[in-house]
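Sample pair:
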Amino acid sequence: MKKSSAVLCITLAVIALTVAASASVVLNEMELNPPEGGAEWVEIYNDGNDSADISGWTATITDGSWVGKFPAVPAGTILEPKGFYVFPGQSSWNHENGGFATLYDADGIKVDKSGTRVDSLGNDFTYGRHPDGRNTNADADWGLGYSTKGRSNVR
């Protein structure tokens, strides 16, 4: 009986650590209308102090009825604290130059969602959180700036 209690406690501790780590992973930057020949992408950021296993996580960009689905994160992918991961889109995606991004964990549970943004310029400017990982659920968390794909957002 004692052995099974210890195993249960360890299992619950591992689950709690995994949930705590994944709770710090947020959408951080998105390219909604790349320059000609480019592809849309979404960047996530681990604002926590613990590594997070993001294996199987997915993201989408939604613009009206159009939905662009990014491929799932490969198995064994660990996002280090203050680290970035970029979901690559497809250059063939065609929609109205805007939308919102949604991030899902491996179980399909929504982790984060951006507000709707419009980018009609078709240049290297993207919407990003300033500073990285800022998540107060306010529109002001996001700003338009020069692309910093896979790196810290700077104004």
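Residues 18 and 52 are 7 Å apart (CA to CA).
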